[in-house]
Design brief:
About 65% of the residues lie in helices and about 5% in strands. By secondary structure, the protein is mainly α. Helix 2 crosses helix 4, helix 21 packs across helix 22 and helix 27 runs antiparallel to helix 28. The two termini are about 55 Å apart.
Length: about 650
């Protein structure tokens, strides 16, 4: 490329900062709103219904929530800087009212008599907690090392799996009795006992039809149409519903054209210490969700999340919560629905989220517009939400894919966190079995799973002396941890790992000299390095140390046969004779034993085929291939040591047991 061409080439724009054309910006933005709307309004409906708030005040709670959702999302996606404080992470993250706050906020309201008169006490606690959280954000960000992928991945998986019943609840028509919520109070539009029906073919066909529509659009269309598949599924499903089912448009007719949520319109905030403590506990839970969401969207858009980014995102949560309390709303956090949408569509621009935020503000200012969006049928909404929440869980699974589960501690942390989260999700009544001071821990599946994961990560990785992961077992059966290996004498190291390298002292010397090892993986790589950096004489000695199938010595031949993986079973007489034949031919042509990592072969027939194919190699090529096979054997032997030292994981390795070779 010439200098002139380079000068005229426009700079590459990060997909996160890219501003799409206005038509697409508006379409993508509205798609986020459609996916987000039900989750955005459900919390004020639940809280207002539980407290017995009047119908007029209920509408104001919803409008205040929508308005603040838009303001909060603008803060997070666009971001501002006040002095040295950066507020908002500038990633495609939408803010919504935290589900974790439902039970505590209702409790605060009941403590002050319920009804609209109790709302100032809730909002006072929300405002003060938001301010305190803003001030604490940089300190929370400093402990981000306590949120490694095993924590964030587990929390995201729990969030996705826990929210899927919410989507399923919509899919069956909005049946009451959703796990984790007290539905004994009235909800707008619901008949007594619930209006959903799992056995309804209409609900089923609309939910599944929405899913199929989205899948067809993503499979058979490309470009713009594929990226708005969720929106088209929602619109298409809604249109068909309106044409075929009875729909009450009265809410649209009765809704006003304009209403602005003024600060403190429910009265001056009232602050109590107990209320502030409860809301701060809620924000502790939402901080975990925000950090998990932040790492998830960072993974999706391929942007590294730094400590400063965490602080900026949490500051935005604090400011949004303070604004929410002032305008008549509740604590805010990043919403997972829209992370799933970013994953499904692949559209990463934060300006699309900013556009969605503007739509939310409009819906908050114009009740009639909000009423139109609220008519999206429950089954249609549920079908799309199932896909989006599943996508959130998949992001968590993807993060867990990078975790070293050979380290049994990671398996315990992730497995127990998911188990506790699912336990509380399935039976939310367990909160009644614990002391009142502990109810916050079990306030929902997400909270219980997240706190358990964080706690176990602290216990296993940060409290007390960290001996590192178990790597192998000693002759007495006791586990040998990584730090013990790093402190071993040369003699102890040789006794422990001689079997990996055929007892070759030169290889043990090389690996021992590379201590300390940061992880079991680093130790395993050291054995590979020893092989690759060895001299020709050392490599020849290693090759000759393997038992030869073609040896005339019956004992050596038996040793070679015994080294074959038991997975293969006993060879037939024909296979045994052919193995001896090819091994003798190999020794005669190349002058060293025939070596193969049989664990990488599927059967004796395939193994023998590989043997005969190698007979066409030159001496130099066969020597290199033999060293590659030895490298595989080193790796399999080392992996078996690690698997045996981590019994919870051993089952995953059992069928691949490597013996002898």
């Amino acid at each position: 490329m010439s200098t002139a061409e380079a000068a005229t080439t426009p700079p590459r724009i990060d997909p996160v900062d890219e501003v799409p054309p206005v038509p697409r910006l508006l379409t993508y933005g509205f798609q986020h709103v459609a996916a987000f709307y039900a989750g955005a309004v459900i919390v004020p409906i639940i809280i207002g219904g539980a407290l017995g708030v009047s119908g007029a005040d209920m509408i104001k709670l919803i409008q205040a929530d929508l308005l603040t959702c838009g303001i909060a999302s603008l803060l997070q996606a666009v971001g501002i800087k006040i002095g040295r404080f950066r507020i908002g992470v500038q990633l495609p993250l939408l803010q919504g009212v935290a589900f974790a706050g439902v039970a505590p906020l209702i409790a605060i309201g009941f403590d002050h008599g319920g009804g609209s008169a109790a709302l100032p006490f809730i909002f006072g606690a929300v405002i003060v907690s938001g301010i305190l959280f803003f001030l604490l954000a940089p300190y929370i960000a400093k402990i981000v090392r306590f949120f490694p992928p095993v924590v964030t991945g587990t929390v995201l998986t729990i969030i996705g799996v826990t929210l899927m019943p919410v989507a399923a609840n919509h899919a069956i028509g909005g049946q009451l009795g959703l796990p984790g919520f007290d539905w004994s109070y009235p909800v707008m539009g619901a008949s007594e006992g619930g209006h959903g029906d799992p056995s309804s073919s209409i609900n089923f066909y609309f939910a599944i039809g929405t899913i199929i529509t989205i899948l067809v659009l993503q499979r058979f269309f490309t470009g713009f149409l594929a990226t708005i598949a969720v929106l088209l599924g929602l619109v298409g499903g809604s249109v068909v519903w309106f044409l075929t089912q009875d729909t009450d448009f009265t809410p649209v007719k009765e809704a006003g054209w304009f209403w602005f949520s003024t600060p403190f319109h429910f009265g001056m905030p009232q602050v109590t210490l107990s209320g502030v403590i409860l809301v701060l506990l809620v924000m502790t839970i939402t901080a975990v969700e925000t950090i998990g969401s932040l790492y998830a969207v960072g993974e999706i858009v391929d942007r590294r999340v730094a400590q400063d980014d965490v602080a900026a995102a949490l500051r935005a949560d604090g400011v949004s919560t303070t604004i929410g309390g002032s305008m008549g709303s509740f604590p805010y956090t990043c919403f997972s629905e829209n992370i799933g949408l970013v994953r499904v569509t692949g559209v990463k621009s934060r300006w699309i989220v900013a556009t969605a935020a503007v739509f939310m503000i409009v819906l908050g200012l114009f009740p009639k517009a909000a009423a139109v969006v609220s008519l999206i049928p429950e089954p249609v909404l549920g079908g799309s939400a199932l896909m989006l929440f599943a996508a959130v869980a998949v992001v968590g699974i993807q993060l867990l894919g990078g975790v070293d589960f050979n380290d049994h501690r990671n398996l315990i942390v992730a497995g127990t966190g998911i188990a506790v989260g699912m336990y509380v999700m399935a039976f939310p009544g367990v909160t009644q079995a614990v002391p009142s001071w502990l109810e916050w821990y079990f306030s929902g599946g997400i909270a219980a799973g997240a706190f358990t994961t964080i706690l176990l990560n602290l216990v296993f990785f940060h409290i007390g002396r960290d001996r590192g992961p178990a790597v192998t077992t000693g002759s007495d059966g006791d586990l040998i941890h990584l730090d013990e290996i790093n402190e071993m004498s040369r003699e102890e190291f040789g006794d422990t790992f001689a079997a990996v390298v055929q007892g070759q002292d030169w290889a043990l010397d090389v690996v021992y000299g590379l201590r300390p090892f940061a992880s079991p993986m680093a130790l395993g790589e050291a054995f590979q390095d020893a092989l690759l950096t060895a001299t020709n004489d050392e490599q020849d000695a290693l090759i000759d140390s393997y038992a030869d199938f073609g040896s005339d010595d019956p004992d050596e031949q038996a040793e070679a046969m015994a080294s074959i993986d038991p997975l293969f079973g006993q060879p037939s007489y024909t296979e045994h004779d052919e193995l001896i034949e090819v091994a003798k031919a190999h020794r005669e042509k190349f002058g060293f034993p025939l070596i193969i990592s049989e664990r990488d072969e599927a059967s004796y027939a395939q193994m023998l085929g590989s043997y005969w194919a190698r007979m066409d190699n030159s001496v130099a090529a066969e020597r290199q291939e033999t060293l590659i096979e030895i490298s595989k054997i080193f790796n399999h032997r080392f992996n078996k040591l690690v698997a045996d030292a981590n019994p919870i994981s051993t089952a995953r390795f059992q069928r691949f047991t490597e013996v002898g070779r």
